[in-house]
Design brief:
heterodimer, A: about 280 residues, alpha/beta, TIM Barrel, nine-stranded parallel sheet, 9 strands, about 15% strand, B: about 400 residues, Rossmann fold, 2 domains, six-stranded mixed sheet, four-stranded antiparallel sheet, 15 helices, globular
Chain lengths: ~280, ~400
């Protein structure tokens, strides 16, 4: 079942004594076919978990890189339906790599929550990270998704204090995503030691794996952040690799190559995180 | 947490910040603790007589409240129907109703120990009001403004700068109010410890829609007393323009349970509702969705991507609307209608020539709706417009639209 794809992956990485690499890219950036090619090549390049971005016109929690990627994807004709189709196509040849959809609520709400949950399950989606659905809005999508066997992964931030932690974790499943700083995606990494402390604090509240994200750009960053965490998430750096490879907004030979090279390098960082 | 009758339309929002199905708290986790703190601070302030007294004193001596209720006799005679009244929010300090909300919120920010204020602005009226209260209370202020709006509202940009605010032009998207709000939210999520986000309209995550409505309800509460004093009874109809809808909700709210008072909201019809992405009428030309922290009527495509919208008025050029308006629309209590750019321009000129009052283009949308209603009403009936702001900022863009020689 889908929920177990996530836990099996974390178990496998733990057995290798390394953090999992959760690699984010924007679905449909810069076009559907290039993006699907990238997705299909990601696991071999070292991505343990695929975070598939769903473009939205108004990404309020994202920095310039992911904003631009979303606009490129929308311009290339990407829609929620196409993002789900990408996942389904990927799933035909890969039964083990977890796919986590990441984005904002409105396109899902407009698609229809019930229909979305059914379509996502059908496409082999394992988890959802929906930035603008805090625990206070769990009835909207979190609970219907979990009923359908799709994990609802929530962000914990430095502003999530002890008072609030149980509320945030109440209906979280799959893994916990610790955002290492307040701010938007693409900012620089904070102190690696304080990350370790934060992960320890979260682990006193939950047995779920903890993935750290925000500000991880290089293999060395991944190695440092992954020392104390069950996984590291990389987004902006990978999205920039796509953005920098384009010519006049179109994919080039470098487009799949550059993002996959960076993925391999980040995976190498994960492998030496605890050595 | 109003407690009116069980069937009252004034009871919202509930504890989840919902007005019926609308409203809510659709924000990133980083912001959740902040908006919960804000709600608590607001409840504390509501129960603190000193807070109310300070706000009341500022209303009287700083803003110039109560704003007059003016009987527009020339326009009443010209249209030959109802007696027309203007609630003169344009006479407030800073030239619009926006100051009412800014004062309420800056006192809250002070109570919460915040040391930096951010705001978004469309026409610049809210930006000016925010910069004004920041100057008055000695807090640094950053105003996010779409680059397109910076161009078309230059006088307000200069005012903000003179008041000491930093104006940050936002080039993302079409460079209008929605993009400015995205950028303000990005700043807030980054600077959570120090920064207070002074939202300018009755929208955004709970408790903003409720809070801003309460601060703007001074309009409707004064109006209620004034019209009874002048005419001996409640008005037959109320009209206000709707962008996010803060002047409108402040005008309407005290009258929602008075079934005999008809209420109309004028949305920005732009080039007309039949022109794709050519208007900003979210309630008459959009459908419910989730943006900027709340569920409300939005302009969007079939994939749930938000459209930019268009209006000649920078203050109405927003693809959403405050959630309480969405609730009032679906409940049928308030009638929302689109007013085109052209109708608003005609009303702008009529008001200027007949009454010697230059209205903001935003308010001119409300006036255009009033001018459609008044002729069919009896001479003994009354209709009130919330004249939400003055039009000095618009003379250049109106001059251009009318083809006047500006050299």
């Amino acid at each position: 079942m889908s929920g177990s794809r996530i836990s099996q992956k974390f178990s496998a990485c733990a057995a290798e004594n390394r953090p999992a690499l959760a690699a984010y890219f924007m679905g449909g950036d810069p076009d559907y076919q290039t993006s699907l090619d990238i997705m299909k090549a990601m696991p071999a390049a070292g991505a343990d978990i695929i975070e598939l971005g769903m473009p939205f016109s108004d990404p309020m929690a994202d920095g310039p890189a992911i904003q631009a990627a979303g606009l490129r994807a929308l311009k290339g004709g990407q829609t929620l339906i196409k993002t789900l189709a990408m996942a389904k196509s990927f799933r035909e040849t890969d039964q083990t790599t977890p796919i986590v959809l990441m984005g904002y609520y409105n396109p899902i709400y407009i698609h229809g929550v019930e229909r979305f949950v059914a379509d996502a399950a059908d496409a082999g989606i394992d988890g959802l990270i929906i930035v603008d659905l805090p625990a206070e809005e769990d009835d909207e999508l979190c609970l219907p998704a979990q009923t359908a066997g799709i994990s609802f992964i929530r962000l914990i931030t430095p502003t999530t204090d002890d008072r609030r932690m149980p509320t945030v974790l109440r209906n979280t499943s799959g893994f916990v995503y610790y955002v290492t700083m307040t701010g938007i995606t693409g900012a620089t990494l904070g102190n690696a030691d304080s990350v370790g402390d934060a992960v320890k604090r979260i682990k006193t509240y939950t047995d779920l794996p903890v993935v750290v994200g925000f500000g991880i750009k290089t293999a060395d960053n991944a190695a440092a952040a992954g020392k104390h965490a069950d996984g590291v998430a990389v987004g902006t750096a990978l999205v920039n690799a796509v953005g920098d490879s384009l010519k006049h907004g179109k994919a080039t030979d470098a487009t799949p190559k550059d993002i996959l090279t960076l993925t391999s390098s980040l995976a190498e960082g994960c492998k030496r995180a605890r050595v | 947490m109003a407690s009116h009758g069980i069937n009252s339309l004034r009871n919202g929002p509930d504890e989840q910040g919902r007005f019926g199905n609308f409203g809510g708290r659709f924000v990133a986790e980083t912001l959740m603790p902040l908006i919960l703190d804000l709600e608590q601070a607001y409840r504390d302030a509501q129960n603190d007589p000193e807070y109310g007294a300070e706000l009341g004193d500022l209303h009287t001596h700083y803003v110039g409240r109560p704003s007059p209720l003016y009987h527009a006799r020339q326009m009443s005679d010209e249209l030959g129907g109802a007696q027309i009244y203007f609630k003169r929010e344009d006479l407030n300090h800073t030239g619009s109703h926006k100051i009412n909300n800014c004062l309420g919120q800056i006192l809250l920010a002070k109570r919460m120990g915040k040391t930096r204020i951010i705001a978004e602005t469309g026409a610049g009226q809210h930006g000016v009001a925010a910069a004004t209260v920041c100057a008055r209370f000695g807090l640094p202020c950053t105003v996010f403004m779409g680059a397109t709006d910076v161009e078309r509202q230059m006088p307000n940009v200069l005012r903000m700068k003179m008041l000491g605010a930093e104006v940050r032009p936002v080039t993302a998207g079409a460079g209008t109010l929605k993009d400015a709000m995205n950028e303000a939210l990005r700043d807030w999520v980054t600077n959570v410890d120090t920064t207070y986000y002074l939202i300018g309209t009755a929208a955004g995550p709970h408790p903003y829609p409720e809070m801003v409505r309460d601060f703007q309800s001074v309009i409707g509460n004064e109006l209620r007393e004034q019209i009874v004093e002048m005419t001996g009874r409640l008005p037959d109809a109320l009209v206000a323009c709707i962008g996010g809808g803060s002047n409108a909700i402040g005008t309407f709210h005290p009258f929602l349970d008075d079934a005999d008072v008809k209420i109309y909201g004028a949305e920005a019809g732009g080039y007309g509702l039949d022109v794709e992405d050519g208007h900003a009428a979210s309630m008459t030309g959009g459908r419910p969705g989730v943006l900027h922290g709340n569920r409300t009527y939005l302009l969007q495509n079939e994939d749930g991507q938000i459209l930019e919208g268009h209006s000649i008025s920078a203050g109405l050029d927003y693809p959403g609307v405050g959630p309480e308006h969405s609730f009032l629309r679906d409940s049928g209590r308030v009638t929302y209608v689109p007013i085109t750019d052209k109708e608003a321009l005609d009303a702008f000129q009529a008001c200027t020539k007949l009454e010697g009052i230059i209205p903001a283009l935003e308010s001119a949308h409300g006036l255009a709706q009033l001018m459609k209603l008044a002729p069919d009403m009896g001479k003994d009936q009354t209709i009130v417009l919330c004249l939400s702001g003055r039009g000095d900022k618009d003379v250049e863009s109106v001059g251009k639209a009318l083809g006047m020689n500006l050299k």
